Structures
1.
Amino acid sequence: MPNSALIFAKRSLSLSRIQFVMGIVIASAGILLFNIGKLLTRNVHVLVNGQVALLSVSLMAEGILLSSFPVILLYVYDKNNGVLEYLLSLGWNQEDIFKRYLEAALFLALTIFIYELAVNVAVSVVIGTSVALILSLVVSVVTAALGFAVVSFVTVAMVDFSSLLKQRVGANSPLAYTLGAPIIALTFLLAFILPFFTGVLIELLIAGVVGALSIVLLMLSSRLIRREKMLP
Amino acid sequence: MHALELNNVTSGYNGQAVLHDISFKLNEPSIYVVLGPNGAGKTTMFRTIAGILEPFSGKVLFDDQNITTSDKARTKISYLSQFNAMPEEMTVYNGLKFYSDIEGGSPDKAIDLLDLGQLKNKRFSDLSQGQKKRAAIAKVFLRERDLYLLDEPTANLDPAVSKEIREIILKLSKDKMILYSSHNLYEATDIGTYLILIKNGSVTLFDKISNIKPKQYRVGIKASTDISKIVDAQREGDYFVLNVSSPEEAGLALKKLVENGILVTEMRQLDNQLQELFETPNVNVEKTQKESQQVA
């Protein structure tokens, strides 16, 4: 099916835009936090010493996670409405189906990341120092690593373990989402207690562990995703 | 000629068998009505034939190709589930286009067939239940198939639309095989040629509907006067009810009434001939399945 990730991403936004918009808002807050100090002081060391850069990483990663949330809702919705069952009847296997949703989630995450990267780099170029540009790139790498690792983990875990599709009482989100939120919350905490470079290393380590976990779950998905899990 | 064959199929969910050792073969274009009480295994059977569920044991073959392993065999089958399975955020046209991009076929043709022209630019979520069902049925006709699995296609539809759908299906059955599940005994006798009765996950009867004769017929008669002294009938509401063992016996009773100068304004069978099948305990499964293989 041509451009299926794009089609599923568009479908998810037609179904629920609010989380994507919230993702943009939070990502923008991160961008603002990261760049306003740079622009005002023209001194990147202020950012690094004040842990502002690490806080902005957490905000921008949270923005990425939130932006992919409509795809999680779409999966739950398609399961309950029999769309997944119908796709199975058309000859798709469970992995074909699951990968479409994972690609769509990563596609939405990518759009937010490109926005964050573009603004951060543009501001660094305006400031005109190589240190500012390097800092922007470091922050972007950590943001991307964390954001994409968490989005992949949440999406893969949700499909592998159908119990994560259930919604908590009073909540509008499936349990899977609550797997991602504490990881990002941990990085907020680290921003206040760790110096910048140690924080960057620890957050890259967290992203690596979460990413590795996603890959393991992805490899196990052929065993874990039974067709029954996709039926309404 | 196409053929669907189930060979000792046991299937279900999460290791729990719902269908037990089912075997039958269909090789004639026709409507095969699948009847059974709730939880009997009708939907599980449809899902297994559609290749959605893999059988725990046994094989489902379509044109001698295993449904579980052959993508080619799967493309010959269309499955309409009880769920609408349409992307609700899309318009009817775009929803059908979404599926036609995957499986091929023409949304316009399906829209024409189901007379959805006026609804095609409406969001699926804005349609009434009946309109949703019609749009959901349209996706089954995007592309021509050889076997149609229709799980309660007329549920939630008003009588006029149900009739329309049944007419489309009847037309289709001239050269296609159709498995049609229903709870409605009258609909089953109206549309079906064959009956597949499922109880507790087993096929307990497979026969031509015309061969199924009840042990007793309840005949309702509306007449110009009290007929209970002429024939052995009891008054029940608007009707005098006569219990007979054959249609011929009912004919003789009518003749007797006419000979006695009674004006009979209406005479009809009150119960459906399939009613008894629901009330009778399971017949010998092994025997019936052997017979069923011969029937189709």
2.
Amino acid sequence: MDELQELYREVILDHNRRPRNFGALPDANHVIEAVNPLCGDKLTLYVKVGNGRVEDISFEGTGCAISVASSSLMTERIKGQTLAASLELFDKVHGLLTGAGEPPEDLDKLAALAGVREYPTRVKCASLAWHALKAAVTGAHREPVTTE
Amino acid sequence: MLSFVIDGIHAHDLGTIVDREGVAIRTGHHCAMPVMERFGVAATARASFALYNDRSDVDRLMSGLKRALELFRG
């Protein structure tokens, strides 16, 4: 596997082609706009929080394969998780993307994002959705989220 | 200067892939958000030529674009 295949793994290409949980969520109680104005990535994250959990989550928007796949993988993994577990996953994925130390364990499919750490300019693509999630879970989203 | 898009492959992905061939292109909004909105495109790729470019650079760009098509369309 060369470095490009390491970045564009099958899981990433598949989630880019057929994003999961794509579309608006009418009963969301958090709607977060996330943008990277320099590159043009735009994402709206819909989150329904209830009983201390992410009961439902979806997204829509445009972006590169890394950004769409990361958003799709995130919604798949986060749906049904407690808020505390969601924040814990945010930290793990952040560690995975920015390459501080060994890649965290138990990431399952999310480990497909590991190739991104070799491409510093693409880290912001992969982390946009996760920052939007953090904003939803902590309720800190008066301003649009950006990773630029 | 040549601005272009490839169906189904975002400009940033093109940028990363041709970079592996040693070719630097610009991708995204090009600091021209209003015109991108006018034409309804999210992002474009843009290759520019300078005095020092020759045919081998164009060949490398093309081989990078072919690689992108292989990766994304199989």
